[in-house]
Amino acid sequence: MISYFIKKSILNGEIVVPHSKSQTMRAIIFASLANGKSIVNNFLQSKDTSALIEGCRVFKAEINILDNKLEITGVNQKIDLKNNLKIDLNNSGIALRFLMGIYAIGNKNILITGDSSLKRRPLKPLIDLLIELNVKFNFSENFFYLPFSIKGPINKKKYLNIDGFDSQFVSSSLILLSLLNDEFHLKVNNPGEKPFVNMTLSWLNKFNANIKNENFEEFFLKKGLDIKPFEYYVPTDFSSLLFVVVAALVTNSEVLIKNVIFDEDQKDFLVLDFLKKFNSEIFIDKKNSEILIRKSYLKGSLEIDLNDYIDALPILAVFGCFVDSLTLKNCKNAANKESNRIDVIYNELKKMNADIYKTDDGLIIKRSNLKSAILNSYKDHRVAMSLSIAALSIKNVSEIQDIDCIDKTFPFFKEKFLNLGADIL
Predict the structure, then answer these.
(1) Is residue 135 within 8 Å of 173, Cβ to Cβ?
(2) Does residue 65 sit in the same domain as residue 9?
(3) Of 92, 16, 15, 20, whose CA–CA distance to 54 is shortest?
(4) Interval 25-60: pLDDT, tens
(5) H/E segment holding residue 6
(6) Quick check: 267 and 339 in contact, CB under 8 A?
(7) d(Cα 61, Cα 357) in Å, to the nearest integer?
């Protein structure tokens, strides 16, 4: 087990944050399905990316890794699998959900597994939809959870339903149904995390997908998908950028984020507007691709519907300890991520003396006098980074355990913060 030992720090300097995991993963998927060679620049190099690359190689996509770019020769939407192949997708929920439907098209038996965390991730809504399409599952341990084998063929049932509390179920379904190149009506119950579904729709629209979206509750799909090769520059990851912004604010520091590639499809960018409501001095300079955070006197209270920004829950819970009051609501699905993020961040911040309360669908946090503690990340990258940021504000040393998970979205996190002056061992 690897730990960070962190204490109070004043940050200063410039930093470049990683590129988007969500956009990297979608670029890899569509490049692997395209009818020629695509280039994906600035891709996020992480375990999730590696898992998806291996998962796409399973259906014969040719993927070459060249420094900070990928050269991907796609399969022209033809899924060719070897029978009884086994693939381990490690910890990547997005790779698992996106690939399940694609593998079913291949009409061969394939065994999918992952690490202990991935084996706990909910899959039933997507499995139910695939079963409606005649896909066969053989569960090795627990029904509706990894590991399992999956096999087509797919029966093109025209009317389908899916529970959309997790956007990846809907995104995976839209990709699959578009690949089937027929007419479908998909009804989504309990649609959530809509910006991530919209991100997938943006990609599908690039390739002439004919999809009518009615308030994310119903989708009408017609023929038309044509995935041509492309070159793509992966933008900045704004969920990762939030950790730097909050770190500067809670340590009363000045930090300049450089080389920011803005992206309208990533709605976590809008969280900066919420932070500004607390008297935060955040200056966005799109012309020069920079975001400057200055020393700020944080004050104010706010209630945020977090469903569209669900990944921001852990770091916003930390931020809430430094303002008068922050209520995070409509974020039940945070319990279904790499950890139960509502319970985990509540319990760990409680160890630090946070004035924090659980509600039916989120958290209420009030200004707190945080104290050092021994903290458990539960191998969740966003929890590990959030607790690290909290520890930067405290005089005595805190230990954050199991921090190697941070590489999932923020490679060189420690090194980048050391360059800003953080006291991390």
Answers:
(1) no
(2) no
(3) 92
(4) 999 999 999 999 999 999 999 999 999 999 999 999
(5) strand 3-7
(6) no
(7) 48
Do 308 and 207 share a domain, yes or no? no
Question: 150 and 41 in one domain?
Answer: yes
Note whether 195 and 308 are within 8 A (CB). Answer: yes
Which residues on adjacent β-strands are paired with residue 325? 301, 366
Segment 280-331, tens digit of pLDDT: 999 999 999 999 999 999 999 999 999 999 999 999 999 999 999 999 999 9
Q: What CATH number is given to the structural domain containing 71?
A: 3.65.10.10
> Which tokens hold the place of 9?
């720090």
Rounded distance, CA 232 to CA 34, Å? 13
Question: For this structure, is 311 an active site residue?
Answer: yes
Sheet with 3-7, side-by-side order of all strands: 374-376, 398-401, 3-7, 423-424
At which of 171, 187, 221 does a domain end? 221
Three-state secondary structure of 295-306: CCCCCCEEEEEC
Query: Which structural domain range is residue 39 located in?
Result: 21-221
Query: Domain check: are 14 and 29 in the same one?
Result: no
Residue 226 lies in a domain: no
Domain stop point among 193, 221, 249: 221
Annotated catalytic residue: which of 48, 265, 311, 380?
A: 311
DSSP 80-148: ---TTEEEE-TT-HHHHHHHHHHHHHTTS-EEEE--TTGGGS--HHHHHHHHHTT-EEEESSSTTSSSE
- Read off the tokens for 257: 């984020």
| Residues 215, 221, 222, 223, CA torsion sign | positive
Residues 372/391, Cβ–Cβ less than 8 Å: yes
- Nearest-angstrom CA–CA distance, 38 and 199: 19
- Please tell me whether residues 296 and 178 are part of one structural domain: no
pLDDT range class, residue 74, cuts 50, 70, 90: very high
123 and 261 share one domain = no
